[in-house]
Amino acid sequence: MAAEATGEVRQWTADINGISLHVAESGPSTGPAVLLVHGFPEMWLSWRHQMAALAARGFRALAPDLRGYGDSSVPADPAAYSIFHIVGDLVALLDHLRLQKVFVVGHDWGAQVAWHLCLFRPDRVRAAVILGIPYFPRGPRPMTESFAKLGDSFYINQFQEPGRAERAFGRYDVATVLKKFYALEIDELIAPPGVEIIDFLQAPSSPLPWMTDEELGQYAEKFQKNGFTGPLNYYRMLETNWRLTAPWSGAKIIVPAKFILGENDVGLQSFGTEKYVKSGGLKSNVPNLEVSIIEGHHFLQQEKAERVNSEILAFLDKFANEEASA
After folding, report:
1. What's a single GO MF annotation on this record (predicted)?
2. CA quadruple 218, 261, 81, 180: dihedral, nearest 10
């Protein structure tokens, strides 16, 4: 109980959905549960600031390493990384913990997973806070067709070919690979012709202002152990995901949601994202939506931790207050 009271991080694994899922937990086990879903290339540690803030407010913060990451299982088959598998892991985790409904917070690939948890199983989500990646409804053709128009220099196109990005990443030590992504401050992830994206990205010589070298080392240790193939397989399943989600064509997300976007996020200008968010296009697909655009880049929950914590807590508190007055 002392660990729960102080917000200390507790770590454990659960055998669910055919894999072993590693989970970091903080806050009282009886508090309202908040599921924190990380992105690429991260792990549960990317939520360290939010876990502390949520625990201090009496929430139960649950941050799993998604399959392919950290101390969770790393299936060898690329087909094991479909959106059904990833969302299925989260539903199985809730069942394992006997949690009927939770709040969900997602960032980057975790944003996609969180949106689809809301889409597939709205009965399991009280409300959602999503960072960085808006919900795009399923289009008439897979997004990979749109990406193909950007050519071979676009990072997602480079990630499609099994082994290609892994070989390119292998020219650098793991910490440098991670730092190149974490330091992103460009408009689009497109390399010059004939250049691999990892060669194009720059790793600053000084520590990141929002991450210590010790924290970077914690990330690097896990990616050194498992490599990058599992995380890259998420990208390699994009066309499969489009086929699998055909039953949800035209479906809207009805879960109450808050979308937080960094005004300097990479990709904001790509695919009409900024116009889609600011013009109300996103809200038409997520009717019960709030949008907050704040200063910062892509890895918002770490770079602007205090502001993001404030945004998350203010949104979640509304639901706690609604229950109290009910």
Report:
1. epoxide hydrolase activity
2. -40
